[in-house]
Amino acid sequence: MLKLDGVSKVYRVGAFGGRALTAVSGVGFEVGEGEVVSLIGESGSGKSTIGRMVLRLTRVSGGTITLDGKDISSIRDRKEYYRQVQGVFQDPFSCFNPVFRADRVFAMIKEQYFPGAGAREWRKRVEDALESVRLDPGNVLGKYPHQLSGGQLQRMLIARAVLLDIRLLVADEIISMLDASTRIDVLNLLADLRARGLGILFVTHDLSLGNYVSDRTVVLRDGKIAEMGPTPLVFGDPRHPYTRSLLAAVPRLHTKWTDLPADGTAADAAEDLPCAYHEAAQESRTRPGLAEVADGHFVACSGGGKAAGAALAKKTLAKNTKETA
Amino acid sequence: MALKVTDLRVYYRTLRGEVKALDGVTFSVADGEIMGLAGESGSGKSTLAKSLIRLDGRMRHAGGTVELDGRELPIADDRAMDEFRFREVSLIPQYSMSALNPTRKIGKMVGELLAARGVPDGTAELERRLELVGLSKDVLGRYPIELSGGMKQRVVMVVSTLLDPSLLIADEVTSALDVSSQKAVATTLLGFRDHGLVTSMMVVTHDISLVYQIADTILVMYAGRLAEKAPAEVLVTAPRHPYTRQLVAALPEVGVRYEDRRLTGIPGNPPSLLDPPGGCRFRDRCPLAFEQCAEQPPFAEVAPGHLVACWKAE
Amino acid sequence: MRRYFGRKLLVYGLTFFVAVTVNWMIPRFMPGDPVQSMLSRANVAQPAAVEAMRVHYTAMFGFDLPLWRQYLNFWGSLLRGDLGISIWLFPTPVTDVIVRAVPYTLGLLIPSILLSWVAGNRFGAFAARRKWLDNTVLPLGYVLTATPYMWLAILLAWALGIIAGIFPVAGAYGFDLQPSWSWEFVGSLAQHWFLPFASLFLVAFGGWAIGMRNMIIYELEADYVNYLRALGAPTRLVRRYAFRNAILPQVTGLALQLGVLVAGALVTEIVFSYPGLGHLILQAIQNQDFFLLQGTFLFIVIGVLIANFVIDIAYVLVDPRTRTGMGEAA
Amino acid sequence: MRSEALHFALRNRKLVVGTVVITVFLVAGVVGPMTIGHKPADYVGPAMAPPSGEFWFGTTTFGQDVFAQFLYGLRSTFLVGVLGGVLASVVGMVVGFVAGYRGGWVDELLTMVTNIVLVLPALVVLLIVNAYLGVRSVGVQALFIGLTSWPWAARAIRAQTFSLRSRDFVDLARLSGVRTPKIILREIAPNMSSYLFLTFILLFGSAILIAASLDFIGLGPTDSVSLGLMLNNAARWSALQLGMWWWFVPPGAGITAIVGALYVMNVGLDEVFNPKLREM
From the CA of B286, how many Å to the nearest CA of chain A? Predict the structure, then answer.
């Protein structure tokens, strides 16, 4: 359904576009109907930029994004596109205009897409949508955003997207600001939507969340794909040293970091492995820069083994400002 | 006992009345203990952390005492607290990226701070400790804007622990970080304790899996009160409070997939703390609730080092 | 930093260009014949002199040339320092008239701007410290900034000049004196200088004090202040940092306020018949001396641009962020 | 949230005092002239009379009623303030919104223009314009003041817009198919309505001050009385030397009171809208 092909994003920074900053380069993957694809990366990996490009909030600098084979930038009528593709963002509080009631997000949809709908009919639709995200309409309609919890707001935004009978949902870090006791329910909602045939692009920095809900995983690093494939393969048999070190750094609930092979050894072990890309046969390099090491499991060159691991170790603390792009 | 908090109450003044953000908490932290303080937003964990070092303008100390190394902390008296700050209690704030004065060179700022606190010359020690976290002493001659976010965070960590405080409070220091950076920061915190730079530590976080990695014990708060405190391993594997149990069960882990095991959250929302209901505050969301829950359960020891505030916890 | 100055200079260059163009354009948009309207008001008795002036001004405007030529000629004579000849003081060149007046205006402006800025900032920071001071001083500050410059000048002249008779209220020095380096003359100069200076100083002082007070209050909410406080830093240190950081927007504020301050000086000079640029402007308007008016305008614009540039340099000196090349948010 | 603002508004002394002062002067300026039987320029009384029961503010050298001039003058002062303030706010808003929302080269260009107008000393430009073009009515005076005093407002609004633009609700509106002008008007502007109002108040005050200076220099309206013109006349006819304080004190005091009340109101409103500044 959705297909990215060699997509790049170059930002011009400074006055009159003096310098160029490449946020995304040559990324290609697909999202099928009824499929959840998680886009995993650290801050600065370009994952949110990709989400914004799919939502046409940011222009594509190179490559194409197509929906059912049609270049999305050629769809003149943005509304027509947004009828099929919608997004939910990280900060639910920032998604609601604080000076208006929260249900204004629904009114906006009505105004733009269903101006002819009767008030009663529309209210029924909104209530149905709210119930489909397990919200009690009586509890949330007519309230101001600050009177609702983050979880409630985020569900309302999903309900808003559902009102449009969309086919693809871009979920950008939608649960990272929610409390632990409610975030899993929102995550479950994504799975429910998938069951209804929606394609979902789930952008996250949290490996365990991505793993929980997605069919396929794309691991991004510095704007490029490091590894991608069916989620069980990527997490069960990571072939790129970057994926391995990410996995090693994730705090787990029943295993301490100290229980894993010590820091250095894990990295060293990864480095000693030969580069999966170069090991692979020439004919398996079916995509630019990626080699297919198993069915649907692609991996990029580790960038000279040691370099990649060392780069991560260095990066460890150097880069932790939140991604803003 | 390094830290002993007894029936501490701190309220927030708001227009609609006082929010009982911290409503009677009693616990202690032993020498050398790293205690994780976990809870959701509105649980009172940040209020507790702030209360131990500096109440902000809208907070009111409504009762209870805090004792550190046998001395009572005058937490309601901003002036008197100054003597304890930095030397006895210190803080690594959530806002490390903006915690340094942007118009002063870092070395100069630290020097002026130390001089103002009556510490003779700390430069040599400062340089040594910067090296410990992998920074060269050159950073002292630079302005904060010349450092990366990670470097600033490390500088703040070093400055906060420079006077070897008895208690270090780390307030959500990892929440905005990438996984790899989280690990490094958490490990550095652990190193501070292991090198004896700080005696005990309170690590405030919303992320139980992270704090589990470094803490000896974990204290879980809910709606302004304590729910459970136990050794980290016990809290994660055998929690006794129904809230903790549900919370831990709601955390997805690497390897758990939706198709295999559908996790569930905790239905409902925490009560408003403007006028909280009497009795156990979790009872509206609690699957085990019964009549007795209308009465506040004591925060009682159910096993050595394991305290729970629940009538059903045996 | 190079970029920072580069951008600033570009803006100033363009501003100068715009000012000159406006200056050139306006007489050409004026209804009727500017030369005729100027001469009709000129207090010149002999017809021969009037004829000489007509020839001169018609040539100056060069109305018979194509517009672009007129425009280039205008720039040409401007760059030669030729601003035409004053009607009011015919046949003195405008440049000479202005150069004679400039020292008086600068003598008023520079001390009143600098002193009010320094004193206002100190005082504002001091006022933010105590509640009662804040509550009493703040309203006073607002009244001062809201006062029209000329009205305060009139009040001071009336109270201290006319009623108390302490200070003279007109001119830059006694009518019976000739400029010289005698004690008597300098004393008279200072006496005449004081009231206009004081009224400029007071109005500006109120503005700076309020600005500083608000800045300090914002600054004391900053994260670095909270951090310092959490580490038990004494109030003295915190305030010193806050003051230093709150000064930065005040430096920018100085640049923004320059136009208002200059305007204040002009009207104050008029009140005191002080022989600076303000006085020239009044005379130019009353005598329909457009060349003088235009020349004064250009002079003031150039002065303001130079002052802006000086402030930019000062800003770089006080804010390390501009020097590292990372904080190019200007 | 709204009732909260009202709650603080009514308890904010600065705001209340400022509003009362403005209202009193406004009523005096609007209603006052109707209660006076003669025109402000009429020679109705003895010359140079100090304040008395008949002529509250005394008379001028020519026997004109200073109080009548004051009331009429208030009217043009408010008029110039409101017209100039509104115009400057509108220009500042358009430039600020567009530059802040569009960004890129549009922003570069508008910022450049803004900076140029900002650096030019407004009063001096107005002097030239007024002297040549013979601007002699309150409306035209307000027009020129409005056209020269918008830059700082544009800069401030641009900065605010810039930070609001990156908020997610703007993206959400775009995802709902809402067009840009509507997003600015219905999403961004309401979020800074208090800020826009504060900007307007400051522009209002500064327009009054600029107009007073122009009037004083002798470039004021010829078709009406204003507080600045009264000062100009008083100075021109040596009220100072003649000790006729009743001639030059009221107009200046009027301007100071109005502009000062506007500023104090501004601070009061700022405290109401901005919880950080509220006194607990």
Answer: 13
pLDDT digits (tens, 9 = 90+) for D239-250: 888 888 888 899
Q: Does D16 touch chain C (CB under 8 A)?
A: no
Question: How far is A200 from chain D, CA to nearest CA, in Å?
Answer: 16
Q: Which residues of D touch B57 (CB under 8 A)?
A: 280
Q: Closest approach of chain C CAs to the CA of B46, in angstroms?
A: 14
Q: In terms of residue numbers, what domain contains A250? A: 237-325
Could you say which of D116, D213, D267 has the minimum Cβ distance to residue C267? D213
Q: Is residue D84 packed enough to be buried (19+ CB in 10 Å), middle (13-18) or exposed (0-12)?
A: buried
- Domain boundaries along the sequence of chain D: 2-277
Identity of the highest mean pLDDT range in B59-73, C49-63, D120-134, D265-279: B59-73
Q: Top-level CATH class of D2-277?
A: mainly alpha
Q: How far is D190 from chain A (nearest CA, A)?
A: 7
Kindly state the tokens that stand for C233: 């830093």
Query: Per-residue pLDDT averaged across D139-161, rounded?
Result: 91
Rounded-to-integer distance, Cα D200 and Cα D90, Å: 9
Whether residue B6 contacts residue B67, with contact meaning beta carbons closer than 8 Å, is answered with yes
Residue A36 backbone dihedrals phi, psi, to 5 degrees: -105, 120
Distance separating alpha carbons of residues D40 and D47, to the nearest angstrom: 14
Nearest CB among D108, D177, D190 relative to A112 is that of D177
Q: A181 in a domain, yes or no?
A: no
- The mean predicted confidence, pLDDT, of chain A is 84
**CA A238/CA A251 separation, integer angstroms:** 17
Of C11, C148, C158, the CB nearest to D245: C158
Is residue A252 a part of any domain in this protein? yes
Looking at chain D, which subunits does it touch, using at least 3 CB pairs closer than 8 Å as the criterion? A, B, C
Going along chain C from its start, the domains and CATH numbers come out as 32-82 (no CATH), 98-327 (1.10.3720.10)
Test the C interface: residue of B51, B53, B103 with most C CBs within 10 Å = B103
Chain D residues with at least one Cβ partner in B under 8 Å? 4, 7, 280
Q: Which value does ipTM take for this structure?
A: 0.87
Q: Is the confidence at residue C297, as pLDDT, over 80?
A: yes
Quote the CA–CA distance of D271 and A271 in Å, as a whole number. Answer: 59
C285 neighbourhood in chain D, CB within 8 Å: 127, 131, 217-219
How far is residue A53's CA from residue B115's CA, in Å, rounded to a whole number?
52
- B-chain CB neighbours of D4 within 8 Å are 15
Which CATH topology does B3-88+166-313 take? Rossmann fold (3.40.50)
**Closest chain D C-alpha to B60 CA, distance in angstroms:** 12
Residue A314 belongs to some domain of the structure: yes
pLDDT value of position A266: 47
The model's pTM: 0.86
Q: In what order do the strands lie in the sheet with B17-29?
A: B17-29, B3-14, B59-68, B71-72
Evaluate whether residue A226 is within a structural domain. Answer: no
CB contact under 8 A, A157 and D191: no
Specify the number of domains making up chain A.
1
D162 close to D104: Cβ distance less than 8 angstroms: no
**B15 interfaces chain D, CB cutoff of 8 Å:** yes
State the DSSP code for B97: G
Q: Is the pLDDT of residue A23 over 50?
A: yes
CA dihedral C40, C41, C43, C44 (to 10 degrees): -20
CB pair distance less than 8 Å for B146 and C326? yes
pLDDT tens for chain B, residues 1 to 314: 689 999 999 999 887 788 999 999 999 999 999 999 999 888 999 999 999 999 988 899 999 999 999 999 999 999 999 999 999 999 999 998 899 999 999 999 999 999 999 888 788 899 999 998 889 989 999 999 888 888 899 999 999 999 999 999 999 888 778 888 888 899 999 999 999 999 999 999 988 999 999 999 999 999 999 999 999 999 999 999 999 999 999 888 877 888 888 888 888 888 888 888 889 999 999 999 999 999 999 999 999 999 999 998 86
